Amino acid sequence: MLIFxxxxxxxxxxxxxxLIGIGLSFDSFAVSVSCGLLRREIQFLQACKVAASLAFFxxxxxxxxxxxxxxxxxxxxxxxxWIAFGLLAAIGGKMIFEGIRDNGSLNNLDPFKTSVxxxxxxxxxxxxxxxxxxxxxxxxxxxxxxxxxxxxxxIASMLGMLFGKYIPAKRSHQSIILGGIILILMGFKxxxxxxxx
Length: 197
Hints:
This protein is 75% helix and 0% strand. The relative contact order is 0.25. The chain has helices spanning 11-38, 44-68, 73-77, 80-100, 114-123, 126-137, 143-165, 172-195.
């Protein structure tokens, strides 16, 4: 298979890759809204770090799926939704716990912490892995789709943090609880899509 397309990308191919990128970026957008709620004082470079992490993993996973191929497809399909749900529920639950504490302390949960950020990035990128596998089956060069998916996710994540940052809230701990609920609902959404649809 070829990683790079032998010719220029057509308009139809670009639109197809763009729509797939938009679909894959919905979860990253929701996570970014939660990050904006959690840290309203978020700076531009911090937002870029979050968006870059989400975009990197969203682009990396289809590339990995493209290389790995069908060998792990059946195994992954049986557990991918549980992995995503577990990561999102754990981080969302911690956010809710911090939000309902009497002292309202925000110091123990940092959405910019590397381990938390990687967990969120992986949880929102698992579906992209399966997309990469399908591209491998269809022998579609993966380089251009990866670029489009990464760019769309970065833009969606930046917009999500901006949106979350300016959602009105009387007190910051209420925003944390809302952000945690969003993450847990995203986890249930992933479970529902894989178990019942």
